[in-house]
Design a protein that fits this description.
globular; 15 strands; 2 domains; Aminopeptidase; alpha+beta; two-stranded antiparallel sheet; 12 helices
């Protein structure tokens, strides 16, 4: 018999955070998160998500041993924007036992029902602005930075509770290849014809960097508002997300586009820091710091994490210039030997972006799924 308990103490939160380390100990493709970052993420005083939404964490116990976990959370930002009543779940982990999984899903279902919500959607940790999606294809390699990984049997557990597919998110793997000279010439013509310029993120000082990031926040909100699953971030949330990745951001892979000095688009690719995290084993000290210091310039892959162009400036070729500039710099990088890149995630319904990824020589090597179930 499975016992479900809400996480209320520091000890229970530690059990919640540490359970995956036990579950995945024999999985060579799992990437251990930094324990310190996980503690901060679930700290209402440090994570601004808690300022507008509620979160409940649950543990599943059998014979007093942790055998699973799940989060249930509201998302007022999502529901205000989409004018609906969707509840969310995430951070699901379970042993291969339908009774344990159903108990966890039911706990999330019942909690969301008390909040007056009419459906449950996930996995989202906590929203589309964070890690999300159930891996259903592509289990033979580690995930790229800020992407998820899970055992293959999870899909069966989700279906067993009646969760059904809502949307697939595709991750395209693109091998390194020399940038054609013709494409370089095309991008120069596109900028002249489209009357736009593209520059790298400022790295001169923190004030200029912050100014650039303010611009990104403005463009992000305008460019993404029509996308499925879009959740507008508060300014505090955006700053929090930037702070969480600022140490791995490389200005040469982070671009801003302008049309006559007006912000028009942005593009972000990050080195695949998961290659370093796998060696750190979740801890910065005592030896993790050395893996960080000596490993960050030995990363051999990158992830194109997001790109947005404001609607009025689309169809000028800004996206083409972004991709060409990124892959050209990656190919010629003096410190990092980038062998491949992942473009993720891309909605299965986004015909244009799927075509671009394919034209760049990529193929969908991983599929992540968002699932829904009506709340009874």
């Amino acid at each position: 018999m499975t016992e479900i308990i809400p996480v209320k103490s520091k000890i229970e939160l530690k059990q919640f955070i540490m359970f995956p380390f036990k579950l995945y100990k024999s999985d060579p493709n799992w990437v251990p998160p930094l324990i310190m970052e996980q503690k901060n993420f679930f700290n209402p005083k440090k994570n601004p998500y808690y300022e507008h939404s509620e979160v409940e964490l649950f543990l599943a116990l059998k014979n007093k041993k942790v055998v699973g976990r799940i989060s249930a959370h509201t998302n007022t930002q999502h529901n205000k924007f989409h004018i609906d009543k969707v509840g969310f779940f995430g951070f699901f982990e379970s042993i291969d036992d339908p009774e344990v999984a159903n108990s966890l899903f039911q706990a999330a279902h019942d909690w969301l029902k008390t909040k007056g919500l009419d459906s449950m959607r996930g996995p989202m940790n906590f929203s589309t602005n964070h890690e999300c999606g159930l891996l259903v294809n592509g289990f033979d390699s580690p995930p790229f930075i800020m992407m998820t990984h899970n055992p293959q049997y999870y899909e069966k557990l989700y279906k067993g509770f009646g969760l059904e597919k809502e949307m697939d998110l595709l991750a395209y793997l693109i091998p390194r290849k020399k940038t054609p000279e013709r494409l370089k010439r095309v991008t120069e013509k596109l900028q002249k014809r489209g009357r736009f310029t593209v520059r790298e993120l400022s790295s001169k000082n923190k004030k200029e960097l912050r100014n650039d990031l303010e611009t990104v926040f403005t463009v992000y909100t305008k460019a993404w508002e029509k996308n499925w699953g879009f959740v507008p971030m508060t300014k505090k949330e955006f700053d929090h997300e930037i702070d969480s990745v600022i140490d791995v951001v490389r200005p040469e892979f982070f671009y801003l586009a302008y049309v006559e000095d007006q912000p028009a688009g942005f593009y972000v690719a990050l080195p695949d820091f998961n290659q370093v995290l796998m060696k750190m084993k979740g801890r910065l000290l005592p030896f993790g710091i050395f893996h960080y210091l000596f490993g960050k310039n030995k990363i051999t892959a990158m992830r194109v994490i997001t790109m947005g162009v404001i609607k009025e400036f689309q169809n000028r070729g800004i996206d083409t210039v972004f991709y060409t500039k990124n892959f050209m710099i990656a190919n010629e990088h003096k410190k990092m030997n980038i062998e491949n890149a992942e473009m993720s995630w891309i909605l299965e319904t986004n015909t244009m972006m799927n075509r671009i990824a394919t034209n760049l020589g990529g193929w969908a090597h991983k599929t992540y799924r968002i699932l829904d179930k009506k709340i009874n």
